[in-house]
Specification:
304 residues, eight-stranded mixed sheet, globular
């Protein structure tokens, strides 16, 4: 398979009838395309997003193309743990078992800003909100028997490692590129420890790099930012693709029979990839991040 496949191509011949899927950030970009593909395959897709008007438009867009599609909407603001907890409760009321949790939503290269809970905004949105959502939905995932958690990362994880001493950038000058890289590294480390903890309960985890995709994530970037990013990338030309193509790998992670009984793998171009920094898959660091994330989210106990 190649990245030229679209998300809809990936689900050709796939039957997700009777399965429930949650897609965060379903109001635009990769989340929107992923939700459409999963709904087209027959899944009950829960569209989770912060922008109520945009997610309602996504729901109408899916139903216009697939009139029999089963979709629901949940309000989710990943920058507020109170919102995350309310969303998890709403999802659990909708479905007794969750077969796919796609932690797709994210922000990129934002100015220094803090979440409602005081966390650096990229770490809060990309990792901590999803960490808490996954923790709360774990019983629902276990109930599905052979559920999958798909965590969106990025090749941009190479821009920075997580700082366990200063995760919220309170002691350093803020670098939005390094902060983004740290949040994407955290996504991969989350996958490593999540899969270790839950594979015995029938839940497997995957981390996905969708490639460079033309979405609204780049709205905070100026022309000088793009030049700076090229320097971080060693001068390489960044070749952007469209969301329908970019979403293919995460939909493949959610549905492919090739990944049955496989987990804790980094995926790109609809295949397992070794193009991942060693620090992002270090098991010791993954366990350390888990403990830090529990502490930051105020979790009373870890997943077992």
């Amino acid at each position: 398979m190649t990245q030229r496949l679209t998300a809809l191509d990936v689900v050709t011949g796939v039957d997700m009838s009777g399965k429930a899927c949650v897609v965060t950030g379903a109001s635009s970009g990769l989340g929107r395309e992923s939700a459409r593909a999963l709904a087209a395959a027959g899944a009950h897709v829960v569209l989770a997003a912060r922008d109520r008007a945009a997610v309602a438009e996504t729901q109408a867009w899916i139903r216009a193309e697939f009139p029999s599609a089963r979709t629901s909407v949940v309000h989710l603001d990943l920058t507020s743990l109170a919102s995350v907890r309310a969303a998890a409760a709403a999802i659990q009321e909708m479905t007794p078992a969750l077969h796919v949790l796609m932690n797709n939503a994210g922000v990129m290269f934002t100015p220094l800003h803090r979440s409602a809970d005081g966390f650096e905004i990229q770490l809060a949105t990309n990792h901590l909100g999803h960490f808490e959502l996954t923790r709360l939905l774990t019983p629902t995932l276990v109930a599905a028997d052979r559920a999958r958690v798909v965590i969106l990362s990025s090749g941009g994880h190479s821009l920075g490692d997580i700082s366990f001493e200063d995760p919220n950038w309170e002691q350093r000058d803020y670098d939005k590129f390094v902060a983004y890289g740290a949040s994407k590294t955290a996504n991969i480390l989350h996958m490593v420890e999540l899969d270790r903890r839950l594979q015995g309960l029938g839940v497997r985890a995957y981390s996905v790099s969708p490639g460079a995709v033309a979405t609204s994530l780049a709205r905070h970037m100026s022309s000088s930012d793009f030049s700076a990013l090229r320097k971080y990338a060693g001068g390489a030309i960044i070749d952007f693709t469209m969301p329908a193509v970019g979403a293919a790998t995460q939909v493949w992670a959610a549905t492919s029979a090739d990944l049955t009984d496989v987990g804790s793998v980094y995926l790109e171009d609809c295949q397992i990839s070794n193009n991942v920094a060693p620090y992002a898959i270090d098991q010791g660091r993954a366990a350390q991040l888990w403990a830090l994330s529990e502490s930051m989210c105020g979790a009373a106990a870890g997943l077992r």
